[in-house]
Amino acid sequence: MPRGDSTSKVSRWDGHGREHVVRMRRTGVLRTIGCDTCGWTRNARFLPWLKAEEHLTAAHQATVDPARTRHPSR
Ligand SMILES: [Zn+2]
User: For residue range 7-44, what is the model confidence (pLDDT) as tens digits?
Assistant: First the structure.
């Protein structure tokens, strides 16, 4: 498995515990980010994860970072 960061993703949970994922792909100097949930896509030259978080918050009210919740309470 390659360990480079050419492909990455941002995942957030919404208030209902549903996971929303925005994936990022690098194509040259551009990064394309796309939302699994609604099909939203965007080109982002800088800070694609910031755009991803913005979308997840604005479109899906998904603000909970699962990486910071290692031990779910249920
Ligand atoms: Zn979306």
Answer: 689 999 999 999 999 999 988 878 899 999 999 999 98
Please give the model's pTM, rounded to 2 decimal places.
0.79
Q: 32 CA to middle of ligand 1, Å? A: 14
Determine the Cα–Cα distance for residues 56 and 38; give it in Å rounded to an integer: 10
CA of 18 relative to ligand 1 center, distance in Å = 12
